[in-house]
Amino acid sequence: MVSHAYRQPDELPRGLRFLAGGGEATRLILARDWTQHPLGPPEGWPTELKTSLSLLLNSPESMILSWGREELFFFFNETYFPLLGPRLSWAMGSPFIEVWADGWAQAKPIIEDAFDGRSQRFNDLPWKLATDRGEQETWWTFSYSRVLDAEGDVCALFIFTNETTAKVRADTALRDLNASLEQQVAERTADRNLAWQISQELLVVVAPGGSFEAVNPLWTELLGWTESELVGHQFAEFVHPDDLARTREVFAGIFERPLKQAYEYRFLHKNGHHEWFAWTAAMEGDKVYASGRRTTHERLQAEQLVQAQKMEAVGQLTGGLAHAFNNLLAGISGSLELAEQRIRQGRVHEVDRYLMAAQGATKRAAALTHRLLAFSRRQTLAPRVIDVNELAGGMVELIQRTVGPAIAVESVGVAGLWSTRVDPPQLENALLNLCINARDAMPDGGKITIETANRWIDRDGARQHDMPEGQYVSLCVSDTGTGMTPDVIAKAFDPFFTTKPLGLGTGLGLSMIYGFAKQSGGQVRIYSEVGEGTNVCIYLPRHLGEAERDDTPPDLGPRPTGQAGETILIVDDEPMLRMLVTDVLDELGYTALEAGDGAGGLQVLQSGARVDLLITDVGLPGGMNGRQMADAARVTRPGLKVLFITGYAENALLNNGQLEPGMSVLTKPFALDTLAARIRELIAT
């Protein structure tokens, strides 16, 4: 585990911030006297070496860097420490041939091949080395990757490596043990051989470690696996992931008492699907003897029904999307076509109406995409620590105006409500949607109650609500309306499902709320009875901290312009978007540079060109995404300002929901005025 020491860049001098995050490995680098070393002091090391070391020191994988084809100076991260044995105290920065002198003869041809472009991956390769226990036969799994300098020449090797000695020895011992046990089983079960061969139930002997020791021939008939494909493997490898935790728990109890009441779980068939089997088992000596039978036809029918329902939902989703987007595309294309005709006819004064129609359809398409991203849990969120009581209380007036005077709105906020970390506008939108649904369920009037509470979800509640156990803040909306049937509740979160009359609902409201809650680490649950009203609760994880305040006033001024010489680099693989952004920047007085992928962008950033702001998509082709490019650029440009533009929240963008200082995110599609304001804000800070 990386220690706190040297974790943050501001804990190091500016010239050494590329060493941040390396823990004890960084300490070893700083502790060495580099004045007499061929590389010289770290502040003057080549950019490629600094960038490579930054990646190495922050990698959770065991990793080394060999710098210079002739010198092969040896660097390593903290995860690699246990593999060095007696070399640890002096190895950092020393030549590879000195660090691994006892293995150089074997390593030399592999390294030379890697420098010449013939990199390989080696699994469990035997190697005789000096260790803390003296010279021993060891085994290693590793691979080599070349590092290129600015001219494209090989300047170093990245080596991912792990010692697998313990695994190889354990595998060998296990194989020997299995061979011995198989012999013993064969000798002691000769009289059971006939029953073993003709049984109509799956029979298995499980060794103390949980591996298959013997199986009967029916396994091949029912599940496709031969005995040789099962024996020696862990039974857990073949259990359905959703059943694994409970299955381990049940089989652990066999050490205390036989499993007499059949236990069902899903077992992997060789063709890739899972089948249900019911098992009984008992201990004999130190082994488990178990028998399993395939469960009933009703179970299979139930699974087929669930699968059919899933496919129906997918069909409903794609059909609804096609219908909605075809309508919007027809409006956009038709408006642009008529605008073009009016321009050719000289009727320019009529063009505005068609452009406004096209813009309106575009905004509706963006809103639909936003709802779909929320449903799929891929929307870009900007979470903050908030007080839900304050948020809900501030919405009451808007909700009352929205639902009308025939419906009373009451807000009941519990005292001492915990904080939660969530995107405030998304939660406001979810609350408003729930209240609108409640209004529609009370055509003759009624009452809406908005309630908050602190909730502890225990193990049973977590299983019932399909959410992790723990502490949550709940925001619930209840009404006195018509209520829902169980069939409607079961489909309420499906995309495009609606009970409203044709044309009065998209069927995406609840699915969007569900996706937003799940993406925020929470859950949504519906409680309803026909004629008794409905209660919908959003559960959000508790955050241990004070609520944040957003006192930034809205920017209502003119579109801000650039200062003389200010330069912005745009990196996006969509040429049309680069063209539009570049045109906007030209109008605002900025100098614009362009790149179509991460490698091209990084090349500009590692040159001497002036770059005041990087605007980049997150998902980029070529193996380097926008976040990786920005992080690499900040090694040599630590103050670089970055604006990420994205259509959804790629995992590479956020670290636990946080962006580093000087970074911001803008969701596609965006208004050009918003882009201009965000650019000026970032450059000015």
Automatic annotation (TrEMBL):
Domain called Histidine kinase: residue spans: 320-544
PROSITE patterns to which the protein is assigned, alphabetical: HIS_KIN (PS50109), PAS (PS50112), RESPONSE_REGULATORY (PS50110)
Domain Response regulatory, chain residue ranges per copy: 567-683
Molecular function GO labels: ATP binding
Catalytic activity: ATP + protein L-histidine = ADP + protein N-phospho-L-histidine
SUPFAM superfamilies registered for this protein in UniProt: ATPase domain of HSP90 chaperone/DNA topoisomerase II/histidine kinase, CheY-like, Homodimeric domain of signal transducing histidine kinase, PYP-like sensor domain (PAS domain)
Keyword field contains Oxidoreductase: no
Stated name of the protein: histidine kinase
Originating organism: Pelomonas dachongensis
